[in-house]
Amino acid sequence: MEIINTVYELAMNLSDLLWSKILIIMLVGTGVFFTVRTGFVQFRYFKEQFRLLVDKNNIKDAKEKGGISSFGAFCISTASRVGTGNIAGIAIAIAGGGPGAVFWMWIIALIGSASAFVEATLAQIFKVKNGTASKGGPAYYMERGLNARWLGVIFAVLITVTYGFVFNAVQANTMSIALNNSFGIDRQMLGITIAILTALVIFGGIHRISKVSEIIVPIFAVLYVLAAIIAIILNIQDMPGVIRDIFVGAFNPREFVSGTGAGIMATLLTGTKRGLFSNEAGMGSAPNAAATADVSHPVSQGLIQSLGVFTDTIIICSCSAFMVLLFGGYSSSANDGIILSQEALTYHFGPFGSIFLSVCIFLFAFSSIVGNYYYGESNIQFISEKHEKSEKIILNIIRVLVCVFVFYGSLIQMESVWNMADLFMALMAILNLITILMLGKYAYAALADYTKQKKAGVENPVFYNDTIPEIKNEIEMWPDRDNN
After folding, report:
1. Distances, alpha carbon 372 to alpha carbons 312, 377, 426, 441, 479, in Å
2. Which one-letter DSSP state was computed for residue 310?
3. How far is 214 from 279, CA to CA, in rounded Å?
4. Backbone phi and psi for residue 134, each to the nearest 5 degrees, phi listed first
5. Distance (Å, rounded) from C-alpha 179 to C-alpha 173?
6. How many whole angstroms separate alpha carbon 466 and alpha carbon 243?
7. Does residue 394 register a pLDDT over 70?
8. Which residue in 482, 190, 230 sits closest to 365, CA to CA?
9. Less Cβ around it within 10 Å: N or C end of the chain?
């Protein structure tokens, strides 16, 4: 037991070092670099992002081919991005860093959108066939872009453990606590129910995952945003003060938060951490979903995934922030996380607010479980692709283990597991950030081609296997120009 505790302590020290000294700087620095290098692509093509998301022709073509539409891939990645962290995480950020943490959360989302664009575009360029659909992600562009399969295998293991097992246990835990507190349902029964629901979806494969995500994600997002709008309208007279507190608190946090954690650096890091945990820009998770989309050009899905960061942080996380900040007792409450969020919604909507939040948490968490599982499935397929006969057996074992972790997570306290997840996520992000910096030139070339075609009047630019000549032999899913 002493050895286990020592190893755990060393792991936590490494995690703290990576997050506080290395990863935050890498994520912010990479986001700024990509923003400048792509000519502020997330702002220049903001209108185009929405057009591509609801492109009826893309949805129709993908359906006819048996593939995944841009909207379906967007929903898969958003299902994983948008989880309990969008509710509990924001409340924790405000409790620890004051209203100013929200400002830094916005900033990291705006610059991080460029990193999301680059990694999603690379995932599309190097994607491979997966039945009637496609698959890809960091493991695949590490193998094909860097010729480093060994690095891809390491990444695949990290993301499978982090998302497929640990994060799904965390989501199930939060879900069971919320429903138990609101409805008094036994947590063991909840664990069994959640595990069964998870099995019904994940044993159905990627198309069922996409279909479930396309239904769940829009519903819970719209309902949650509507609740925030109602809360804002009911307290409209206080909104100018809330906006002031966010901007003033970003640079003068001591006005709102007392104690040693009140410095501007603490507020900046708190907002940055929560923003990064929420939108995952540059972490290497969303590209796995981006690669499933059937699009005519890699940049199309890059732009849509950039929009996903905006949706997650600027819209949904802001809804959580406004509802907490419009609750007059947020600064004096002894609670944080989900409990503080429940207090805020009870203040705005009475007892119904707590019930509504529990339902939202269920939808947020379950959609995250579904999205997280797909990341694990895609990467297990990468590891086992040289052993096709055993792939199905391995996938079924992984699916069973996911259900076991979901059930187990519904019953236990998750602090130590969260800490281990932080470590795995940090290692995963560092590998991905280094990789996309090295392969970024291909995303820039794809963007230049897309821009050239748009200026020529092409509504939906087309990418060919020789558009970037130096990687033609590594491209599998894009058409030949002569035979198209």
Report:
1. 16, 9, 16, 29, 30
2. I
3. 18
4. -140, 165
5. 10
6. 50
7. yes
8. 190
9. N
Q: Are 461 and 450 in contact (CB under 8 A)?
A: yes
CB hemisphere CA count around 351 (13 angstroms): 3
Q: Give the tens place of pLDDT for each residue, 103-125.
A: 888 888 888 899 999 999 999 99
Q: Give pLDDT, residue 260.
A: 44
Secondary structure of residue 134 in the 3-state scheme: strand
Is the pLDDT confidence value at 405 over 70? yes
The full 3-state SS of 322-387, as one line of letters, equals HHHHCCCCCCCCCCCHHHHHHHHHHHHHCHHHHHHHHHHHHHHHHHHHHHHHHHHHHHHHHHHCCC
**Domain ranges, ordered by start, for the chain:** 8-447
Contact between residue 190 and residue 172 where contact means Cβ atoms under 8 Å apart: no
Report whether 313 contacts 278 (CB < 8 A): yes
- pLDDT at residue 36 above 80? yes
More confident site: 295 or 87: 295
Residue 309 has pLDDT above 60, yes or no: yes
- In CATH, which superfamily holds the domain spanning 8-447? Amino acid/polyamine transporter I (1.20.1740.10)
- 214 pLDDT higher than 70: no
Q: How far apart are CA 401 and CA 378, in angstroms?
A: 15
Q: Find how far residue 138's CA is from the centre of its chain.
A: 14
- The answer to whether 99 touches 246, Cβ cutoff 8 Å, is yes
From 78, 88, 148, select the one nearest 120 (Cα to Cα): 78
On the CB side of 432, CA atoms within 13 Å amount to: 33
- Helices 239-251, 318-325: inter-axial angle, 10-degree rounding: 110
3-state secondary structure of 477: coil
Residues in CB range of 108: below 8 A, 6 or more apart: 27, 28, 31, 271, 272, 275, 276, 279, 281, 313
292: burial class by Cβ within 10 Å (0-12, 13-18, 19+)? Answer: buried
Compute the Cα dihedral for 65, 115, 472, 379 and give only its sign. Answer: negative
What residue type is 420 in one-letter code? Answer: M
Task: Report which of 291, 315, 283, 317 is spatially closest to residue 23, judged by C-alpha positions.
Answer: 283
End-to-end CA distance of the chain: 63
Q: Which two tokens stand for residue 480?
A: 């030949």
Is residue 134 within 8 A of residue 292, CB to CB? The reply is yes
High-pLDDT (> 70) share of the chain, %: 78
The residues near 55 (Cβ < 8 Å, ≥ 6 apart) are: 70, 460
Q: In the structure, what pLDDT confidence band is assigned to residue 266 with cuts at 50, 70 and 90?
A: low
